[in-house]
Amino acid sequence: MNPEAKNSNTLEWVCIKLSYVLVSAPVTCIMALNAQGCPFPEGVCRVYDFGPFFSAPGSYITIGAFLILCLLYIAEKWMVPTTFFLSAISCIIISRHESNGIFYRATVLSVIWIFQFLAYLFYRLRPAFRIDIYRMQYGTQAVAAVYTLAGIAKLTASGLEWVNAGGGFPAQIMKNYSYLYFDSGDMTYMHSGYMLALFLLHHPGIIQFFLTISLVLEVFCLAAVFNKRILLIWGVGLLMMHIGIAALMGIGISIIAKPMVVFFINPLYLVIKGIRYLRSKWGLSQNR
To answer: What is the rounded distance in angstroms from the CA atom of residue 287 to the CA atom of residue 116?
Structure first.
């Protein structure tokens, strides 16, 4: 069988590719523009600092190469070398960015590129490999593995007592909202932080409940990847967890939430399917 024969773009896969490029490319490009120095080598920068990639012209060449590869990825062209170089450039950019002492927690973006490269490599080596399934499944498993490892890390550090660790949340909330106040000068941040912290201080059971839910969602995340319906429900739960943390703590939604939404929920695909369904129902009602 021709290695490209099974590489046809299904709607679900096209939606995942488009969505993943839209959430990962801007972050990667911004990191490339802000990765000028390498005072604290991390990742692959411990081997080589890749300074020429981030010089005045070098950073734009690096970004240009990355974006061209993203277009090839969307077009499903030369997927083994395309995903390989996307993985390599992503690792270099994220490592260089973290080598500035800024930990954006974006490593998961490189991990997903690497897993997709492995899927296409396995297909190249063994044409019977179900690339139509595993090019999506590998990315999903990569995201789920990150959540599972985060949950295991919590259990390793604190055990089940982690769910009772919400006593310091009010102080953390006040700290985060104080940062927002000092950044903006808007006193309403201080008022909001104080009211929220006071409420949680008098209702510790609420924190304990949501910490328990979040721990379950993380620890058992890998179990959800083998059933699409459960995966969708899990994805919605994780998204609510991220939104809750962002609203409660006065911080932005963490970077892992973006690829999680793409691979677990795939909202673009659901929207298109919903539109098609409504159009078909509308067409049937018009024909009656």
So the answer is: 45
